[in-house]
Design goal:
This is Pre-mRNA-splicing factor SLU7. The protein has about 550 residues and is mainly alpha-helical. The chain contains 13 helices and eight strands. A two-stranded antiparallel sheet has the order 1-2. A two-stranded antiparallel ribbon has the order 3-4.
Length: about 550
């Protein structure tokens, strides 16, 4: 596998080399060993295991894959901040014109600009800074904590501890002050009562140091620092005597426990007695306390944004909270107004007004019998509903309901005798106006009937040839009428030969004039479809 260099091999040697590699991969032959005695994995590809030709490697090895060009100049040290070197007594050529240091120029000087620089005064020459240059390796360049002094973090810890101590001291003082105020408010008569004794005990307990109380909730822990360490107080997440939440129910199908976040949302023991359980799942925390208030605040901001208000919970949380508080105040005001209206209309049963004795007792000697379902069988008449619609509802100034008046196959209002539904009531004036208009209409109709004349009856005119009127003194020739009848019958029966316009000679002329006799013959021989004797005319 890891051949040192490319050497010429015969076909037989190449075949044996391939068989040896296959045997090494299958585990039938021992693995190849490098010059240091380490085994070479036979599954490494050849392009990785074979060394380049310019290395002139005589034995198989994987050293060409390792970092063989290592720079000893790489370091993990850091700059010595604030270190000073030589401090001159007078100005030197090439130094900073402002402070006199040789390590920088006037443009890069970090001191306060002097009114007259050190170049001209030769006074207060600043010392030279320690300038260092490091050549860091790949990891050193990308280490964000390179050069950090851990001992500086002790000041942060001290600040937090001092803040906690001040807070605890302030809370103790406030608690003692409240308890003392309660003691002073009470009279001298109750000085020996049990309440005073309990308050005294509370004051004594408040004076006790916290280190003597609830020791199980604290543990002393030593924090390792460069300066030798400091002792701090770290609170436990739970009491050690309590059972872990993932051990409450060992059933695989029970509530899921996430080891990464240490959370168990569902109740591990849903069937157990609630009074005996101290843990009901993490969802209980999400549905109670400030989490529920925050959820309601989010819902209110979403609904307000959908209704057109410019509000966003993440962009302006203070504005959203103020709007939510104003919304709750208005909601409570509306509730109280609605409650006052209901109490004003129906009264308040919980008020101090005494209830009448008849209503309070509600007793009588009347016997009522019920069945198993609670229905009344005997002793009280069941009031049947008259209609499923609203009754005695008067609208538009009417004093009667719709359908209280009937005339000429139309329903209406009896108070104004109108037949238009949902119309405005006109009262007696409307009734008088309607009667006057009806009388006027009847008089007009009678006058119109009297003024009309009898229509002239026109006699039916007989149509002559081609739509002309038939005169009264029209006389038909019987001979011509008989000939016309023969021609018409022949034409109908199909005995007359059809005239061919192509075979007609030039001088031949047909008489196409229709006479009165021909027209009469056509009318006499015409078959009417509604004639019951039409079958005998052929």
């Amino acid at each position: 596998m890891a051949t040192a260099s490319v050497t010429f091999k015969s076909r037989e040697d190449h075949r044996k080399q391939l068989e040896l590699e296959e045997a090494r991969k299958a585990g039938l032959a021992p693995a190849e060993v490098d010059e240091d005695g380490n085994e070479i994995n036979p599954h490494i590809p050849q392009y990785m295991s074979s060394a380049p030709w310019y290395l002139n490697a005589e034995k198989p090895s994987l050293k060409h894959q390792r970092k063989w060009k290592s720079d000893p100049n790489y370091t993990k040290s850091w700059y010595d901040r604030g270190a000073k070197l030589f401090q001159a007594n007078k100005y030197r050529k090439g130094a900073c014109e402002n402070c006199g240091a040789m390590t920088h120029d006037k443009k890069a000087c970090m001191e306060r600009p002097r009114s007259v620089g050190a170049k001209w005064t030769n006074v207060n020459i600043a010392p030279d800074e320690k300038v260092e240059s490091f050549e860091l390796d790949y990891d050193g360049k990308r280490d964000r904590w390179n050069g950090y002094d851990p001992s500086t973090y002790t000041r942060v810890i001290a600040d937090y501890e001092a803040r906690d101590e001040a807070r605890k001291k302030y809370l103790k003082e406030q608690q003692l002050k409240k308890l003392e105020e309660k003691d002073t408010e009470k009279d001298d008569e109750n000085a020996g009562s049990e309440d005073d004794e309990e308050d005294g005990l509370r004051i004594d307990e408040a004076k006790v140091d916290e280190s003597a109380q609830m020791d199980f909730a604290k543990v002393e822990k030593r924090v390792r620092t460069t300066g030798g360490g400091s002792t701090g107080t770290v609170r436990n997440l739970r009491i050690r005597e309590d059972t872990a939440k993932y051990l409450l129910n060992l059933d695989v199908n029970s509530a899921y426990y996430d080891p990464k976040t240490r959370s168990m949302r569902e109740d591990p023991l849903p069937d157990a007695d609630p009074n005996d359980k101290f843990y009901v799942g993490d969802n209980q925390n999400r549905l109670s306390g400030q989490a529920l208030e925050f959820k309601q605040l989010n819902i209110h901001s979403w609904e307000a944004f959908e209704k057109g208000q410019d509000i966003h919970m993440q962009a302006a949380p203070s504005q959203a909270e103020l709007l939510y508080k104003s919304f709750k105040i208005k909601k409570e005001m509306l509730k109280s107004e609605h409650k006052d209206k209901i109490m004003e209309k129906y009264g308040n049963a919980a008020s101090e007004d005494t209830i009448p004795r008849e209503l309070l007792l509600g007793q009588s000697e009347r016997e009522i019998e019920y069945d198993r379902t609670g229905r009344i069988i005997k002793g009280q008449d069941v009031a049947l509903p008259k209609s499923k619609y609203e009754e005695d509802v008067f609208i538009n100034n009417h004093t009667t309901v719709w359908g209280s008046w009937w005339k000429d196959h139309q329903w209406g209002y009896k108070c104004c005798k109108q037949t238009i539904k949902n119309s405005y009531c006109t009262g007696l004036a409307g009734i008088e106006a309607a009667e006057a208009s009806a009388d006027l209409m009847k008089a007009n109709m009678a006058r119109k009937e009297a003024a009309e004349d009898v229509p002239v009856q026109h006699e039916e005119k007989r149509l002559a040839t081609w739509g002309t009127d038939v005169p009264q003194d029209l006389v038909l020739d019987p001979k011509k009428l008989a000939e016309s009848l023969k021609k018409e019958k022949a034409r109908v029966r199909g005995k007359e030969e059809e005239r061919d316009e192509k075979k007609r000679k030039y001088n031949v002329h047909f008489d196409d004039q229709v006479t009165v006799e021909d027209m009469e013959a056509y009318r006499m021989t015409k078959i009417h479809h509604d004639d019951p004797m039409r079958a005998f005319l052929k």
